[in-house]
Design brief:
Elements: H1 19-36, H2 44-63, H3 67-89, H4 94-101, H5 108-120, H6 125-153, H7 158-170
């Protein structure tokens, strides 16, 4: 209706937006997710900063050629490290910061495309199955990356965690 070209969902997105536009969209969507998850107000900007740092890691990982599977894992490690450090300093669990910060790494559109290809083009169902496999690998890489990042940051946040455990025992 506004004159844009029709989108063929079976084809990968070829156009890219400038980095500053994507960073703005990542920031807005991260804050919106935080609001939907009822995150404390004091965590909105730090969570947005963690998501932006993760996206920058993802972007440069793709630029240097790490690929569609490894770049999200590296970005998730960055998110895991920063989420642990920032969340514990602000008195929140690490996942409260990490989960909204990794939303941009999720592969929902890839799963949709793979299912679309599998169901509507039976001759090309192998391509759809490979697409689903690739999406699952990326999902597992992101989950593992956040955990690895959390474990990497653990020695640097040990004192904060001990304070939290002590405070919880007193309750």
């Amino acid at each position: 209706m506004v004159g844009a070209d029709w989108l063929d969902v079976a084809e990968p997105i070829s156009g890219t937006r400038p980095l500053y536009v994507v960073l703005l969209l990542v920031a807005i969507s991260t804050v919106a997710i935080c609001i939907a998850e009822q995150t404390a107000i004091k965590l909105l900007l730090p969570t947005m900063a963690v998501a932006l740092a993760g996206y920058v890691a993802f972007y440069y990982g793709m630029e240097i050629g790490l690929g569609n599977r490894f770049a999200p894992a590296i970005a998730a490690v960055v998110v895991g490290i920063l989420a642990r450090v920032i969340a514990l300093r602000l008195g929140a669990p690490q996942l409260v910061v990490a989960v909204p910060s990794i939303i941009f790494l999720l592969v929902g559109l890839s799963i949709f495309r793979a299912m679309f290809v599998m169901t509507l083009t039976p001759d090309d169902s192998v391509t759809g199955a490979v697409g689903i496999f690739n999406a699952l690998v990326i999902i597992l890489a992101v989950a593992a990356g956040v955990v690895v990042g959390d474990n990497i940051a653990r020695p640097f946040t040990r004192s904060n965690g001990q304070k939290d455990r002590r405070r919880n025992r007193r309750r």
